[in-house]
Design a protein that fits this description.
The complex is a heterotetramer, with two copies of chain A (257 residues) and two copies of chain B (276 residues). By secondary structure, chain A is α/β, with parallel strands linked by helices. Chain A has seven helices and 14 strands. Chain B has two domains: 3-102 and 157-261, Glutaconate Coenzyme A-transferase (3-Layer(aba) Sandwich); 105-154, no CATH class. Classes of the chains: A alpha/beta (257), B alpha/beta (276).
Chain lengths: 257, 276, 276, 257
């Protein structure tokens, strides 16, 4: 029996499945937040969600629009100052996974959320680093989720806001007290992981109905595929139902105001 | 000791042209009423510090108040760009502005260090990021014990900090509750501070929801308090009113267009009374 | 995730001979029950860290558990000396101990830095004091922005931290209230931590006195929780029982005399059951 | 009409009078705490008392035995972590006066609370620095109160735990971001202030019934007297009454437990 679902839903469900129950996860807003909360509402009820607004172990009933919606504080175990969040909880080594989105990503999983073009004369000014630069280095590992496109997946990012593995893949080598970095990238087409040697992103799993060509066409460099390329399992009916309810509750809550 | 002033008088007295001003509030308790008062009074050449510029700085920048912005994430949270910030950076409208950008961790530490009276903050940060190549205020030091290379940034020490909070009491003590952000740090780091509040109660320690470790800033650490009911809207005040997420989404269309923006400012800020 | 253990089992499992142990609590919530359990189990060669050694370390030192003490104020507050600490330092009884002493500001910053995962703390401290001449762990750095000379000390990173708190809930989250000292910092700075509590409730966030910014340490940041009713006596637990100031005064006479001390330990610690 | 009072009461009342209403005072335990609370209960109801235990703006009804008695937290405006107390409130520059006691003090108002004798082989091991080293340098100014004796008032302290003006009187010269240091020393015999040039302590006021010889005999160096030597005003009946009530309440409270 095949279910009807969108590629966006496929992405969110796959990203959610990456989180294991009991993990502590520093959650970025948008797609990561959607995936992390889906995980919490399905297979990982005890995943610990932490937002940079200081909300520790939060369990929102609707997705926050911002990183600091009231819902996050009201459903948190406790809320601490933002400086404490970054110092004690992130830098202090209590985060298993940082879950990030991005505007641009390159073959070494470096992230650019700063700008397109030249720094002093930008073509497009993006929001900037926010929490990402230190989440990416101080969390145990990093998951990244974003929609697959040639605009987003570029050979070299215009600006390394946030370290993946550096412009040569060796950016973490020999650095003390640094996390493993990006261990998987989840898009609406596939799942990628860094090559254990070169750190270049390699497609390890294709989503249902997606071909190698689809991924290659949407990627700005000659993307490699793993020898044992897997097929991402479909979303379950329960996952889809819970995700759709979550998004509906969210839409209702955000339009009400 | 905090003086109780009208918002008009507090801004007129403490925010000078050319000043370095931090208006803080991490998504929560953003001092919009005070920001609008700054726009109404036509303050110019401000250096604006804020981790998340948000709509409040988009409005100040679009209204021409800013000379420089120091920040770590300049977007409309969950919606997209700050179009006035972008227009200023990309096209120089209404004037060229200088930007100095950090990461959240560095700015949060810089506020903490400012509150702690230190000239610098030290963090394990910026590893592998190219931000240090465009921000000469990011440096590195070697730990004298382990030799580890750590990032250093100057502490934040604004001339004036403006924050919004839930309650003050008659002695000028202020309660901040919920997402406390770097509100207390911003106040303590500043030479002078203005706190706008939803209401004034008799004595915070006699309130029914008093807690021995509540985030209370004593009146003697604050320059001025001004009552500004709903002073954080479209942001929110935990326990008072929710975030106006719909307005945050609507702002996208208003701010995309220079004329629509100017009209909005005229109607909603310049010709609005404020709380004076 | 915090494991609920008996105090006996928690100490047996996590406190090893030779370990670096911080038992914190600034006058308030001092983990006496746990300290007595450490004495009962005859732990040896511990490096004991604590801002204010207090009676608890006087007892541990007198009982021969300590090899080294790192501290910033070693007295019986309001009463006088810690005679067992003095006897060990001055006469080497029951064994020679090494001391490393700081100021409170430096140690508090060192706990903060430990919690923050940093190797060092930076402070405007020790100016003109001769403590740096007897403590080689106090160094100085130059601020890369202002050139100011600032003190640096290594962060505190204990093998085990032991603190006492008011309540845990079934998920292992712990509430600390009142004088919170450096309790949270000490727990977060340590590789492992044991928290003894007055009681276990169902869910801290559902308690009638819950506060959104309460000092709550999540269960996943704690190794073990042990219930120890009145576990802070003769220190106190805000909301539970007051400080036994009379015992603090009586301790002076007990601790002045080696035999009186030994007898007291035998009667009140060695032959007392503990909470196991 | 002359009142009956002890030299200890004279000292406490004089020390209390040094505090002005509205000052923020970082209070040491013992004599400073007694004087600071007397000030609060008499002429300075809005003096802000801060103890290093994190209790901000506290108004205890009985004197605390320790620096962190429950009474301090229960009567405080709020209680913060100890690291915050030292970082934000003291180092952050919010303290007008640090009020300290000491075991030894020398002619340049350097304080020793570390030990008598040699550091590695102490004759008497004292409690140590505690908060004093940074209170003395980060507060706007410092008041010191202690009983006058040759044991306490020595020409050179055995160990400079806490900076007065250094072993040569120049310890604060040219140091950035440092407070004025000790501006007065109040004993049971007299009040001393540092000479504006040399920083050596000079007696500026003698308590009633105290002679120059009394002070000289109790001081371990050749103490100087100001040209215009004043006479410390006597305690008032109200000050004595309030002080005695405070001490009685305190004794009752501490023996009850």
């Amino acid at each position: 029996m095949s279910l009807d679902y969108s590629s966006a839903e496929m992405m969110t469900v796959t990203a959610a499945r990456a989180l294991e129950n009991g993990m502590t996860c520093f959650v970025g807003i948008g797609l990561p937040s959607e995936a992390a909360n889906l995980a919490r509402l399905t297979h990982a009820p005890d995943v610990v969600l932490i937002y940079e607004s200081g909300t520790l172990q939060t369990r929102p009933q609707v997705l926050p629009l911002s990183i600091g919606d009231g819902e996050l504080a009201e459903s948190a175990l406790t809320t601490v100052a933002v400086q404490e969040m970054f110092r004690y909880w992130l830098q202090g080594g209590h985060i298993d996974v940082g879950f990030l989105g991005t505007a641009q990503i390159d073959r070494y999983a470096n992230l650019n959320t700063t700008l397109i073009g030249d720094y002093r004369e930008p073509k497009v000014r993006l929001p900037g680093g926010g929490g990402a630069p230190e989440i990416a280095t101080n969390a145990g590992e990093v998951f990244i989720t974003l929609k697959h496109s040639r605009r987003a997946f570029v050979k070299d990012v215009d600006f390394v806001t946030t370290l993946g593995f550096g412009r040569d893949g060796k950016g973490r080598d020999g650095v003390p007290n640094i996390g493993k970095g990006p261990t998987r990238v989840i898009t609406d087409l596939c799942v990628m992981k860094p090559d254990p040697e070169t750190r270049e992103l390699v497609v390890v799993s294709l989503h249902p109905g997606v071909s190698r060509e689809d991924v290659s066409d949407a990627t700005g460099w000659e993307i490699r595929f793993a020898d044992e390329l897997e097929h991402t399992p479909e979303p379950s009916a329960r996952e889809l139902e819970i995700l759709r309810e979550l998004k509906e509750r969210t839409a209702r809550a955000h339009s009400g105001q | 000791m905090a003086e109780f002033l009208s918002l008009h008088d507090a801004v007129a007295r403490f925010v000078e042209d050319g000043a370095t001003v931090a208006m803080e509030g991490f998504t929560h308790l953003i001092p919009f009423a005070a920001g609008h008062e700054v726009i109404r009074q036509g303050k110019r050449d401000l250096t604006l510090i804020r981790m998340t510029p948000d709509l409040i700085y988009d409005q100040l920048i679009g209204a021409g108040c800013a000379r420089k912005v120091i920040f770590s994430w300049g977007g409309n949270p969950g919606v997209g760009s700050l179009h006035r910030l972008r227009d200023a950076v990309e096209q120089g409208w209404p004037r060229q502005i200088e930007i100095l950008e950090h990461s959240h961790a560095a700015m949060a530490c810089a506020f903490e260090a400012g509150a702690a009276g230190l000239p610098l903050a030290v963090l394990r940060g910026y590893v592998g990021s190219e931000l240090p190549s465009v921000n000469d205020q990011i440096r590195f030091i070697d730990c004298p014990f382990t030799g580890e290379r750590l990032a250093a940034v100057p502490s934040v020490r604004p001339d004036v900090t403006i924050v919004h909070a839930q309650k003050a009491d008659r002695a000028g003590n202020v309660l901040v509750e919920g997402i406390v952000g770097v509100q207390k740090e911003a106040v303590l780091a500043a030479a002078k501070s203005i706190v706008t509040v939803e209401e004034v109660v008799d004595d915070l320690t006699a309130e029914p929801d008093y807690h021995p470790n509540a985030c209370i800033i004593p009146g003697w650490a604050i320059a001025a308090i001004a009552v500004a009911e709903k002073g954080a809207l479209p942001s929110y005040a935990h326990g008072y009113y929710p975030r106006d997420n719909r307005f945050y989404k609507e702002w996208d269309a208003i701010a995309r267009d220079r004329d629509a923006f100017t009209q909005w400012i005229d109607e909603n800020v310049m010709n609005a009374g404020g709380n004076a």
